[in-house]
Amino acid sequence: MTVLAAPLTGVVPPVCTPLTPEGEVDVPSLVRLVDHLVGSGVSALFVLGSSSEAAYLTDARRRRVVETVGAHVAGQLPVLAGVIDMTTPRVLDHVRSVTEAGANAVVATAPFYTSTHPAEIARHFRLLASRSPVPVFAYDIPVSVHSKLSAEVVLELAAERALAGLKDSSGDLAGFRAVVTGARTDAGVTGFTVLTGSELVVDAALAMGADGAVPGLANVDPAGYVRLHRLCRAGDWERARAEQERLCELFGMVRLGAQTGRMGGSSSALGAFKAALYLRGVIACPVTAEPQVGLSDGEIEGVGKFLARAGLL
Amino acid sequence: MTVLAAPLTGVVPPVCTPLTPEGEVDVPSLVRLVDHLVGSGVSALFVLGSSSEAAYLTDARRRRVVETVGAHVAGQLPVLAGVIDMTTPRVLDHVRSVTEAGANAVVATAPFYTSTHPAEIARHFRLLASRSPVPVFAYDIPVSVHSKLSAEVVLELAAERALAGLKDSSGDLAGFRAVVTGARTDAGVTGFTVLTGSELVVDAALAMGADGAVPGLANVDPAGYVRLHRLCRAGDWERARAEQERLCELFGMVRLGAQTGRMGGSSSALGAFKAALYLRGVIACPVTAEPQVGLSDGEIEGVGKFLARAGLL
Amino acid sequence: MTVLAAPLTGVVPPVCTPLTPEGEVDVPSLVRLVDHLVGSGVSALFVLGSSSEAAYLTDARRRRVVETVGAHVAGQLPVLAGVIDMTTPRVLDHVRSVTEAGANAVVATAPFYTSTHPAEIARHFRLLASRSPVPVFAYDIPVSVHSKLSAEVVLELAAERALAGLKDSSGDLAGFRAVVTGARTDAGVTGFTVLTGSELVVDAALAMGADGAVPGLANVDPAGYVRLHRLCRAGDWERARAEQERLCELFGMVRLGAQTGRMGGSSSALGAFKAALYLRGVIACPVTAEPQVGLSDGEIEGVGKFLARAGLL
Amino acid sequence: MTVLAAPLTGVVPPVCTPLTPEGEVDVPSLVRLVDHLVGSGVSALFVLGSSSEAAYLTDARRRRVVETVGAHVAGQLPVLAGVIDMTTPRVLDHVRSVTEAGANAVVATAPFYTSTHPAEIARHFRLLASRSPVPVFAYDIPVSVHSKLSAEVVLELAAERALAGLKDSSGDLAGFRAVVTGARTDAGVTGFTVLTGSELVVDAALAMGADGAVPGLANVDPAGYVRLHRLCRAGDWERARAEQERLCELFGMVRLGAQTGRMGGSSSALGAFKAALYLRGVIACPVTAEPQVGLSDGEIEGVGKFLARAGLL
């Protein structure tokens, strides 16, 4: 069985889920996408995260994704799987499903839909840890779950070995730094993985001491993020900044749909990533899941211009 | 098959889900709870709503609930079932499950976890309607899904026959009134059901023209709400107000847990309803689902005092 | 000196502030507006509230408003004045100014801009009460100050005589009812005034036992709200509801600007009220304060159509 | 007259406002504080910001602050003054006051209390710029004003010369980076100052290309921030990170009050900064303005421990 490095370092892309026009998982496209990512030097794969449209996938489709990716990578590199659901009992069902399908770690958010007290959030992670056969990562994503994991609770759970790592998509780099620093200095915390999900400040997060990054945009340009990671590791901050700024410019593609007012930022971003993968020949169809509004042909063309400017077409 | 009245009127309690200490559905208790409600004169039952802890129930437990209730009421009165999940494809899986298990209508929220554009929310309900074998009610619950259904979109979907009714838990009585008035006056809207989920202003909602109410507290005192509904229908507003104020006082039980700071308002309220059902001898065990913090013995005693003052012990 | 009734009952319009094209207070228009309101049978006037654009008025203009209105009504009916500012010391400066200018009571919000703890909010009102020469009303307006006054704290301050009344613009009718009921039943609370600022559910608020209403739309149709208040007092709920629904339809004017996307809901509503007063010949100019975007000529025409349908032109 | 560098670089502390036990500005303490800051090598002073408790200061006290600081520094270094108020006309009154008292630039937030459309926010800054005799900086502080300035609008106003700079207290480092990069690369934007107010990630902000920092904690340890700034300018990122981490640990003092539940985070932080200045012998009295709850003696002792650990006592 694949043993997860502790900490896990490098680029861990949150893998998009290619769909057929009917909304089924497009398995051949998913396999090509995995090859595209692995071939670029990523360290691990994160399936069934927000960029994977996990919230839009039925249980059967979620399972199909983990099975496909797990079988294809066959232990070459670790597969982390999101277990995104409202509360502990429902999340545990996903833990069972994704670990049966081969996931090497699970990534769980705080409860959502319900209003949950901080003590209940900590209890949620402790319960998951005690019942999961694989390591549990916390997924801090306030924009989706409407609560923020504090550095204190994350470090407490890390010291208890309830959590193996953190995937931070909060956008709060000061709070992120507190976890990074605590993971290095707190007695009792060892081997804890701290990953940033903020694709526009990966250089800053790595400079602070983060172990790695989970950038949605790495679907589109995995080689760019792998390069960025290596430059940071080498302490070449000047060139790292230039690479990061290039990626920030490429990221501008996510606004093409939203700026028309026809859709929100999430559909616009997911649509752009898939359009880019389609234009780069990685996936067969750029469709996103229902009920999302899709990009227009003109907006897809706009994505192409971003790719061209970035030298990716 | 049970035909749903259009509009559906009266008291439609959101049925609590009794659990065993292990967290399984306590079927005998659920059957007693249904008898307790039906015997008090309610018009229909709403299972798998927020008061039912639907967010905490695995798919298997959700299905057990619908099957149990459906089999037990056996068509005497309609069963509405919540299909609470993040997006259209996942909700449709629940629609399939609950209708196979006998639900006469489904109650769906706007998408959550993801950020969804108003156009996508409307699309979500249209897609559900086109694929559901039973009528679809919209469940407006901004505190959980972090978006509000506007009166405009609800009435538009009502005119299209995509929605059969609204369960409003938004607390926004002015917006609710716009739907109630529109349902009465808009050309093209007929038979649309407007239900309030705000247990503390049921008299006001009925005075405005609402068809009925879905009060969580009706688990504890169904006879009180049935009486309140009848007084309002009879235009006896003086006695309706007195009955409503008595129920408002009884509702104070929901704060017992939260005021200690050990838990939030949701766990405190669900715990109090279940403690009350336990103390009244309806269910066998007052436990709530994980990861919720439960009421202490002292807090359960406090619930008993509220029941005593209301003449319910 | 005008003695404030305790409780104060009836319709208390939040008086719009007519401006000249240069943004100065248009004194003759303000005097005409006061006559328009007083002539319709309102009980008191509330100047420098949100509908008065108090947030947009310099201290000099605020003082001009109170002086003008105070001198013109000359004690015929009470004048309540908003003292809207961020914290206690700044609010106390306004208290001094408006009471020197003749205000009979002051209306203060919780602190804003700063993050304030509930204990500090209670302290704020206690400090204001101890230093104000006139009664203090609490102005509950979460949409502006981003905190909600709980019924508990309002009733506690009422029992201490720190607060003389509440102007509730929270839209939370269940919380409002808790104050209304508490003001009637709590030992130690006497003569406390509970006013709703929710113009679309005034009938419901009065049915619950509110003392009166502070509806922004009463600038446009004061006679309608006075009629509504009288019908409610007479227990003629059927006709009250019809009158309220007529006013709800008239209120539709507030959406004309916002639905174009050129401005937000606040500018759209304030612009519509002023356009209506202009079209009805009460004020000389419909301009709103900077930096608000104004209604277009077409949108002002639209306001006219609402007035015509309501028989107000 | 002091000419503001364009861009302004270095450490620009948001100067605390020492108060007497009666709540008046403690002028001798303020003068000592200014000497403490200037002597440590800061580049400019920012008075009447959030850390200055500007929201709690009456107009007379605000003016006293600017006059005192302006007279004392006498043009040695620039003085920026906050003009924090709800809307354009009220802010312009403050612009007049602080520039008469000697401010070299003004720092203005988006409108607050009112709901303001993005177009109205841009209009607000344009109006301020057209009427201010000194440069206008935008103060992006969503936690206080409940709206976020987008990088797009900031850069547009920069290109128009309406804004001279940005003080970013949003905590959104990705958005901040977009402004920093745009200020460097956009045609038409020159000499625009980009300052971070996030004291815990100053190294990251400077690495991205920010011009300087406005850290509240610089009141307590100005020399530390000046050192940090110099290390960053020298490209010594290793030692910069160590210095920043030392400051992050010192910052822990802000939680002493809040963790008791007696007050919120804002009162706790302002109280800690003033307690530290008091313990370091800079100001005579650690009191904060009303209605804030103050630190207890034990909490002030706790602040002393943070100072001792940081070698500042």
Automatic annotation (TrEMBL), chains A, B, C, D:
Superkingdom of origin organism: Bacteria
Annotated PANTHER family: 4-HYDROXY-2-OXOGLUTARATE ALDOLASE, MITOCHONDRIAL, DIHYDRODIPICOLINATE SYNTHASE
Statement: the UniProt record of this protein carries the keyword Lyase: yes
Gene3D superfamilies: Aldolase class I (3.20.20.70)
CDD domains: DHDPS-like
PROSITE patterns, alphabetized: DHDPS_2
SMART domains noted in UniProt: DHDPS
One Pfam family named in its UniProt record: DHDPS
Gene source species: Streptomyces graminofaciens
Keywords, in A-Z order: Lyase, Schiff base
Cited InterPro entries: Aldolase_TIM, DapA-like, Schiff_base-form_aldolases_AS
Protein name, UniProt field: Dihydrodipicolinate synthase family protein
Stated family: Belongs to the DapA family.
